[in-house]
Structure formats: structure tokens, C-alpha cells
Design brief:
By secondary structure, the protein is α/β, with parallel strands linked by helices. The protein has two domains: 202 residues, Probable inorganic polyphosphate/atp-NAD kinase, domain 1 (Rossmann fold, 3-Layer(aba) Sandwich), CATH 3.40.50.10330; 157 residues. 31% of the residues lie in helices and 23% in strands. It contains 13 helices and 16 strands. The strands form four sheets. Strands 10-9-8-11-13-15-16 form a seven-stranded mixed sheet, with helices on both faces. α10 runs parallel beside α11.
């Protein structure tokens, strides 16, 4: 079939990613959403959905839920969608996502494109399982699931290729989610909920997040020793989440929020678990470096779980002051694929791309590509 004869379902979770830049580790639950909004959070799921849709041929028929759950993004992307269902604007729920997925299955869409995070993937899975071909546009805070494209652009490209008949291979991809309440207590508890069937072309899809291995502790300690030995007075160090970066604060004798962003200077903790606005306050008029580690199995350096380090923060610090640390095991888990950035700002992503030195041990570095 030609792409013009294909039918694309679209669901946008309008609150996906709301808690990222304000440091709330997720957006699940109405109370967290209200707290995020009170802190000035802005959801970017609409703009990320539009970014994906702009890569798709306008002749494709789009079936969408009303307003903020899909129709608005479809129109902004150049389509006149077929609208189904009903919602309460500003009061959408996971049940709306599940109802939309069920209705799109009934209508026989060829592919369901949904923008959200792991919670949204769970809702789609709970509604249709593997009965409907689906693909995620990454828009959440915590994206452990393998059902998502590497970026909104990749989601649009893969959907376009599939609808045009240029991608025919399918695969079962994991739907993962973590307990956000436990996460906010520093406990990462991921669970496999099931599988969604997705169109498959390796370069467009993100991998499944894999945890650090217990046997890598010595390597982390060596990385920490190298970083600490090179820290300079007069500089702020913005330290991203992860077990590899936690080894650095442990070397300094400081506590680390495992899934938060902390700031140190002169060997002391300046601020713990900061959000974007607090970071910008601390950086005002100060020299700073950012220390981050890629996500195992996925390779993301920015844009997954560390949205507090926003494009504005990265621009203020500068690419030359970004320090990437990683065990060799984590690098090997990528299977030769590049490191990734998905900050939500194309210019910043392009600035960060190219090649970067990655600290892998004491006085040990490799040069690795960032795409």
C-alpha cells in the first residue's frame, strides 16, 4: 500500500515530561503534576509530537483524540486529523490514553504513534497488548522502555518509512516502568510489564536501559579518582545522576542523590537535588563544569533522566566544560552505537554532537562519537 492509503493513529500525553526540568523525577499522578505546574513546569510533549509529525507525508490519514491529546499536534504538523473520542481539556487521565488506543485498534490504524514516557507505554500496552503496531515518541522523564524511538525526529522518520513500505521488519519491544515514589527515595526499581510490537530499524530505536554491573565498582572508583584529582578551586561541578557519578561524590566524602543532580565546589556540597531554575541561579557569574555518564544500553548523555541540565544550562556552561565518564562495560553495551543527546533543542544537540573524550579509568580516556 502507498503511504497515502495508510492510517496513522496519534496519542499525545499532554503531561508527559512535566516533572523533568523541575527535578520531580517523573510526572505520574495528579499531585505530582500539580506540584510540577506550581514550580513553573511546561510539558513539551506537544512540540515533540509535532517534530515527529513534520517528518511524515501529509497525505497520510491521521486519527487522533481531541485537542491536547493529539488533534492540536496533528494540525500544527500540517494534517487535518479524523477526531475520535472526547476528553476533559486540562483533566486528561491514563484512562483516556487506554480508551484512545482501544478505539484506534477497532478502527484498524496501521500504526499507533504515541508521545509520552514509560507510564504512557504501559497504558498503551494494557489497552491493546501486541494487537496493534505501535511506536513511541520520547517525551517523558524516565524512558526505560525499548518501544521508543531515539528522538522525535527518529520517530517521525521510522513511522514515515514504515507507512511508505520501506520498513517491513517488526519486533517485540519491552515495556518497562519504575516506581516513581521509590525513585524519589533514591531506589530504582524497574519492572517488565510486557511487550509492544514495533516497526524495527536499529538506527531509529533507543535500546533498553541496562543497570550498571556490580563488578564495575573498581572501574567506577578509578574514574572517580581521576575526576577528583583534576577538580579545580573556583569552579562549580554540576554532577548528573547515576552510580558512576555517585562514585565521584563518594570519593569526596559527600552524599549523592542517585537520580538527582547535585552541585559541588571546593570539595563541598553546594546544593543537592537541584532543578533547572536553581541550577541557573547557581551558575550566574560562575565558572562551571558538567559531569555526566551515559545510560547503560541506551547511550544517552543528555535528555533522559537529567532534564534538569537543560539546554539553557548546557549553553551557559559550554560544550568544552562537559565531562563524560563511563565504565568500559557501559561503552561495550552500546555495541558500537554512538552516544546520544536529545535535549529538546536542536541547536544544542548539534553543538554537543561530534566526538568527545570519555574518562574510563584513572588517567584513561577514549574518544567516542556523540550523535
Amino acid at each position: 500500500m502507498k503511504a497515502a492509503e495508510k492510517k496513522l493513529g496519534l496519542i499525545v500525553n499532554p503531561v508527559a515530561g512535566l516533572g523533568g526540568r523541575v527535578g520531580l523525577k517523573g510526572s505520574d499522578g495528579i499531585e505530582i503534576q500539580r506540584q510540577a505546574l506550581a514550580l513553573g513546569a511546561v510539558s513539551r510533549s506537544q512540540e515533540r509530537a509535532i517534530c515527529a509529525l513534520e517528518r511524515i507525508e501529509p497525505a497520510v490519514e491521521i486519527v487522533a483524540y481531541p485537542g491536547e491529546m493529539g488533534a492540536d499536534a496533528a494540525r500544527a504538523g500540517g494534517f487535518e486529523p479524523t477526531i475520535i473520542g472526547s476528553i476533559e481539556p486540562g483533566e486528561t487521565t491514563p484512562e483516556d490514553t487506554r480508551n484512545a488506543a482501544v478505539e484506534m485498534l477497532r478502527l484498524g490504524v496501521d500504526l499507533l504513534l504515541f508521545a509520552g514516557g514509560d507510564g504512557t507505554a504501559r497504558d498503551v500496552y494494557n489497552a491493546v497488548g501486541e494487537k496493534l503496531l505501535a511506536l513511541g515518541i520520547p517525551a517523558g522523564v524516565k524512558i526505560h522502555s525499548a518501544v521508543y524511538a531515539a528522538s522525535p525526529v527518529s520517530a517521525g522518520d521510522l513511522a514515515a518509512f514504515f507507512l511508505a513500505g520501506r520498513v517491513s521488519r517488526l519486533r517485540e519491544a519491552e515495556v518497562m516502568d519504575i516506581d516513581e515514589d521509590a525513585l524519589r527515595q533514591g531506589i530504582v526499581s524497574a519492572k517488565l510489564y510486557g511487550y509492544l510490537k514495533v516497526p524495527f530499524q536499529r538506527r531509529f530505536l533507543q535500546g533498553l536501559k541496562t543497570p550498571s554491573r556490580p563488578g564495575e565498582r573498581a572501574a567506577m572508583a578509578a574514574i572517580a579518582a581521576d575526576v577528583v584529582s583534576k577538580m579545580e578551586d573556583g569552579w562549580l561541578y554540576v554532577i548528573g545522576p547515576g552510580t558512576t557519578t555517585r562514585a565521584i561524590t563518594s570519593r569526596l566524602g559527600l552524599d549523592k542523590t542517585l537520580i538527582g543532580v547535585d552541585v559541588v565546589a571546593e570539595g563541598k556540597l553546594v546544593a543537592a537535588d537541584v532543578n533547572e531554575s536553581r541550577l541557573l541561579e547557581l551558575l550566574d557569574g560562575r565558572k562551571a563544569k558538567i559531569i555526566v555518564t551515559p545510560i547503560g544500553g541506551q547511550g544517552y548523555v543528555f535528555g533522559r533522566g537529567n532534564q534538569q541540565i537543560s539546554p539553557l544550562v548546557i549553553e551557559q556552561v559550554g560544550k568544552e566544560n562537559v565531562i563524560v565518564v563511563s565504565t568500559t562495560g557501559k561503552i561495550h553495551s552500546l555495541g558500537g552505537r554512538p552516544l546520544l543527546v536529545d535535549t529538546g533543542d536542536q541547536e544544542v544537540d548539534e553543538m554537543l554532537s561530534g566526538y568527545v573524550r570519555v574518562i574510563t579509568g584513572y588517567d584513561e580516556q577514549i574518544v567516542y562519537q556523540v550523535a
